[in-house]
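Quick look at the format.
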Amino acid sequence: MALSNSSMPIFTEFVLLGFSHLLQLQKPLFFLFLVMYILTLLGNTLVILVIRIDQRLHTPMYYFLKNLSWLEIIITTTVTPKMLTLLISKDNTISLFACALQSYVYFVAGSTEVLLLAAMSVDRFVAICIPLRYTAIMNSRVCLLMVLSCWLCSFCSISASMLLKAGLPVCGPNVIDHFFCDTGPLLEMICGDIHFLRVFDLALSCFNLLSSVAVTIVSYICIIVTVMRMPSARGRKKAFGTCTSHITVASLYYGSSIFIYIKPAGSSSVEFNKIATVFNTVVTPVLNPIIYSFRNKTVKDAVRDALQRVQVSLRKET
């Protein structure tokens, strides 16, 4: 974003206000977010490693979960380190290149996660509604193509948005009332009419989010109908048990994303947007491994077995 003609200022950096108005809470927030960031990295890395090494988890559902964990690491690492720096350092500037890169990576990864959650709901639909054909339909090639499609769609849509804004004149001031380079504050700096850019970004958000939500809702309506027809109460409980973790994670991410990005301009305060973004970038990534681990017996068993193997190895070395 940026750049201007000869009659306008040329900005090489921006100022992020972050949580500068919460002077008394800066240090507590720093330690809270730091702990959550470390737990996010450890939890999601553990999920990735356990899925990779445990043969019981070499199924489509856990293949998608592994990719979801990678996305959580990317999203939180794109935003949280700079946010932590703002809380303890007087240097609240970010270079033009770093700002553009942060915004681009965040929205590509976030958009990919939205689409991936929809893909995971399709996987659950096939597993429960068409169980006899599950292995044939959700083979490794199809799973790979679904994940690559999520990345490709996100890359194309976010790249188109960034290209439309690249090189546009910026009037300033170069102050962003946020803890990362969100698209809303950046749009406010552009000189001239930004109505088309707002509509374009809103259309992209609606397409990615609402289409993913629609796919998820339709998938679970079919799942509920199929499960309610099962004669065995135990079978119904087991079928629903394979879906609860995904429903919880999808609801958290869809809900906060819709609140932030699908609304008229100026319909919510900057502070509410910051809180919702903290939920997406700090809270949800740390909750996902917990939700999938504590609500999924197979994952719990795999984590326990992996930790036991590590303990045995350490004992042999000593």
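Next, a different chain entirely:
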Amino acid sequence: MNGEPTLTYVYAVAAPAPRLGESLAGLRGVGDAPVALLDAQGTLLDPQGAETPGPVFVISRVPAGPWREEALRSRFEDLAWLESTARAHHDVIQALTEQTVVLPLRLATLYQDSARALAALREQQDVFSARLALLARHAEYGVKVYVAAAEPDTAGDVRSTTAHDTVPEDAPSPGKAYLHARRAQHHAREDRYRQARQAADRIAATAALHATHTVRHPTQTGPLTRGESGENVLNDAYLVPDEEAEAFRTALERAGRGLPGIRVEVTGPWAPYSFAMPPTQAADTTGRPGARS
């Protein structure tokens, strides 16, 4: 990079594979940087490099200026930059998953130099190897459950009466009618959420039967998540053996039937983002957690 100081950006840990290098030929990562492999011997392999005996880091060298902590603090607030960078990060990982088992790392996992990245790779070779073996022939699937949005609030629409209206003697006053309507609305809402929670538990139990591991993510909230999908009440990730993938999808489709107001969304297969184990001593120059794509 013309003598400019660089940092080492690490996308993932990858298991050795005969054609791993070929899958990276011509691939560009974050900031349009070339992608390479760093093995435990300290060799920076080009895309035509031979197979290595153990896990490797998949890396790019990026200019230090835009990727230092003080620069990233503001760049993480730039949604266009963040989306573009996350997509580039994910594209590298997706290319890898077509060739081998991958432990995806967080967006903006950075080391001051290749020597520090190498030290982390060497230190955790056994841990990485065990984790890669665990994830072999598995994929991540996401399962989300949504409950239909509540009906518009009409409790306050209590029509006033006039002298010409006929009002039964035992009719409640407008104030009481309002309170009754609000109470009924509250009970309906509680019933709807109780049914949604029961449905989510049923669906989660069904999914777990076909998975080896589960991660429960926080449900998605906010105005951008509500729209036509309704409100998110379950947001789980499942690690599913490849031979169970079809049965997993079929079982969830069956479990979601006959549940009025409930929608089940299954996504995947994905690289195992939720089940990867990042390096314990990664020198993340951002000083903050990375982000998923």
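DSSP finds eight helices and ten strands in the chain.

See the schema section for token definitions.
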